[in-house]
Amino acid sequence: MKISHLTSDGKQAVLALVQPGELFGELALIDESHRDEFVEAVQTSKVILIPRDEIVRLMEEHPTVSLGITKLIGYRRRRIEQRLKHLLFLSNRDRLAHLLLDLAEDYGRQNDEGVLLDIKLSHQDLASVIGATRETVTITLGQLRSEGYISVGRQRIVLLQPDRLAESVDRLIRKPKAVVA
Known about the structure:
Blueprint (H helix, E strand, L loop, with lengths): L1 E5 L5 E6 L19 E4 L11 H10 L1 H27 L2 H16 E3 L4 E3 L5 H8 L3 H13 L3 E4 L2 E4 L2 H7 L9 E2 L2
Parallel strand pairs: 4-8
Antiparallel strand pairs: 1-2, 1-3, 4-5, 5-7, 6-7
Helix pairs in contact: 1-2, 3-4, 3-5, 3-6, 4-5
């Protein structure tokens, strides 16, 4: 799922990607006003609505639920701050490399080639996340491919050398969660 905002001129800015099983919409617990963001499924999905009052009750009765939601809000804030720093200080190439590494950590599956990003995102989706144009993302993906870091197919990206890619942008990486043949 992707959480997006539509600008007044009709451009989509992807604010976050939501993993399966992950809670979203948590800001409704703090601020009940109407939100401008929308959520779009990028894969077949099931969404379960938990009424705000029920979550508040669970948080009051179970401190671990409160702590978990607080940690989630903190984690998302840290991710947004990091993306803002990237937008302000990094080149398109480095922003895209960081995004691909983030996706590898959250959606990566080890295969024979390297780390397959097990999420379907278009070049436009990638551009919307890093604040670039689709054309820039297409060119930059081509550069990363010619440098030997990635393999690109139709809505399919494999990080061939994630460690080297991370090194090229001065980043430490976590390994993908699952190892699948």
